[in-house]
Amino acid sequence: MVAWNHDAGYGSIRPAGGGDEVFVTLAAFPTDGEGPQLDEPLSFEVVAGRDGRKQAVHLQRKPSTKRDSALSAARGAGHARVRQARRRRRRLGLLAGAVVAGMLIVSAVRLWPHHPKVDARAALQAPR
């Protein structure tokens, strides 16, 4: 893959053995959930498109090399750190919310006006 336009959904591929670039659309890619990546090793068939240009079809991702798997492992470690940071931030947010709620409850209890209990009998018997 030598070029890709994400907005339009097409790009070009250059065969590994050399030769002209070949037009490719998003529909030619496998539906494995991964989008096209530049410099990704692919296998494909070349056919003549509707307009007569060469077009790549039936794309398949080639197995990754050791170097690619090392990059994937490093990328995975980065994602793990991001997930860990998100969890830590979420816990900190929950803790901060609990502290604020506790402070509000304590403030409300201390500032709530305390009225002495009125004995109903004493109030009825009291002289006016």
From TrEMBL:
Domain CSD: from-to ranges: 1-61
Region (Disordered): 53-84
Basic residues bias: start-end ranges: 55-64
Keyword Mitochondrion: no
Gene3D superfamilies for the chain: Nucleic acid-binding proteins (2.40.50.140)
Transmembrane residue ranges: 92-112
This protein's UniProt keywords: Membrane, Transmembrane, Transmembrane helix
Record carries keyword Transmembrane helix: yes
InterPro entries to which the protein is assigned, alphabetical: CSP_DNA-bd, NA-bd_OB-fold
Protein name: Cold-shock protein
